[in-house]
């Protein structure tokens, strides 16, 4: 029984989840990078390409999961539609909904695959029926469950800046690495001084902007932290894929050894309050940028674009630029390495624990 459980745990929480992260990277995240490049004058066509890639995140994740499960071709192709439905109905919990529902749909689809003479009809029908019904009936509840994260962040925003900085940074950073959408959560909460809530009630703008800055800090701590901490195992490819892609690539390794998450979480608990209390880092760019971290560099870009908005409340000086560099890049790399070395010495982390799945 123990061997069976280990086999299925590897199948679903390592193989399938690792593949899902790659599918997310190859669609939503690479599309985000294209969209960021499209901000450069004369390269607006890249924004069009980026939006196209972002729009197929659900299908890309589901297909990647089905391939990882070694599903037959008809099951794999049918999972594209399942992924689209699960992602759209799951809201901020879309990636998690895709993971759960695509696994179930693929497994059921494989039960009937190549079992009849009309396989071309039966297999996609069963796969899509199961995945479609689950997407309609259960994906919204997954989104509501993820809403608990939003509630925690909303509570944190009512605290004084030090506590708020710690809580928002840690929680949003964790959400970024989990198979849920930190960007969607930040957009829904309006973590920007120019969000709809801030524009409707200007007294809310400073708090929302400060929370957005803390969120950026937490996301950068995760992405840059994992990228640097795992450099020995993953070299330059891992540095780029995690540093400007997503720290979600480490989720299979986190499940295998949750202690590898300690250095980045501790780092976010430090950089968050530094952002709010020392450097006064605020988000006056798009609220969605608050949950992006260094993915396509959109977190820092959102902060910088906000500085040049007429609504930005204070003059920007050298301290702001230094703070941005420290909070988004220097401290996440330095602190995570420091904490990880301690954990290596006490053998809570071992060589190979951070190796990305191929």
List strands and helices in order, with pairings.
Layout (H helix, E strand, L loop, with lengths): L1 H36 L7 H11 L1 H12 L4 H17 L4 H19 L6 H19 L1 H18 L4 H17 L4 H8 L6 H5 L4 H25 L1 H13 L7 H6 L5 H17 L19 H10 L10 H28 L13
In a few lines, what is going on in this structure?
The chain has 358 residues and is an all-alpha fold. The chain folds into 2 domains: 2-142, no CATH class; 157-345, no CATH class. It has 16 helices and no strands.
Give your account of this protein's structure:
With 358 residues, the chain is mainly alpha-helical. The protein has 2 domains: 2-142, no CATH class; 157-345, no CATH class. 73% of the residues lie in helices and 0% in strands. The chain has 16 helices and no strands. Helix 4 (73-89) runs antiparallel to helix 5 and helix 7 runs antiparallel to helix 8 (161-177). The longest helix has 36 residues, at 2-37. It is globular, with a radius of gyration of 21 Å. The mean pLDDT is 91.
Overview features:
mainly alpha, 16 helices, 358 residues
């Amino acid at each position: 029984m123990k061997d069976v459980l280990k086999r299925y745990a590897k199948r679903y929480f390592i193989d399938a989840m690792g593949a899902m992260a790659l599918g997310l990277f190859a669609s939503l995240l690479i599309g985000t990078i294209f969209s960021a490049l499209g901000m450069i004058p004369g390269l607006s066509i890249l924004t069009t390409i980026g939006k196209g890639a972002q729009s197929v995140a659900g299908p890309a994740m589901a297909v990647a999961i089905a391939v990882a499960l070694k599903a037959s071709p008809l099951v794999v192709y049918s999972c594209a539609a399942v992924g689209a439905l699960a992602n759209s109905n799951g809201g901020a919990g879309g990636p998690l909904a895709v993971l759960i529902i695509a696994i179930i749909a693929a497994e059921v689809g494989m039960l009937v695959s190549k079992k009849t003479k009309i396989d071309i009809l039966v297999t996609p029908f069963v796969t899509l029926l199961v995945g479609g019904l689950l997407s309609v009936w259960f994906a919204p509840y997954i989104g509501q469950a993820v809403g608990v994260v939003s509630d925690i962040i909303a509570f944190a925003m009512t605290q004084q800046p030090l506590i708020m900085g710690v809580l928002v940074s840690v929680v949003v950073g964790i959400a970024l690495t989990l198979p849920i959408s930190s960007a969607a959560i930040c957009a829904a909460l309006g973590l920007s001084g120019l969000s709809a809530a801030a524009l409707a009630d200007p007294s809310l703008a400073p708090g929302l902007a400060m929370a957005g800055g803390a969120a950026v800090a937490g996301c950068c701590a995760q992405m840059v932290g994992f990228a640097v901490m795992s450099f020995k195992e993953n070299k330059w490819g891992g540095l780029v894929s995690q540093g400007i892609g997503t720290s979600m690539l480490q989720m299979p390794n986190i499940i295998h050894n949750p202690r590898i998450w300690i250095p980045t979480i501790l780092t976010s608990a430090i950089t968050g309050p530094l952002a709010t209390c020392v450097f006064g880092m605020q988000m006056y760019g798009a609220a969605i940028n608050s949950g992006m971290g260094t993915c396509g560099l959109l977190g820092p870009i959102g902060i910088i674009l906000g500085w040049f908005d007429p609504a930005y409340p204070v003059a920007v000086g050298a301290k702001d630029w230094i703070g941005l560099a420290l909070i988004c890049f220097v401290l996440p790399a330095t602190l995570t390495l420091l904490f990880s070395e301690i954990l290596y010495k006490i053998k809570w982390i071992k060589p190979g624990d951070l190796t990305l799945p191929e």
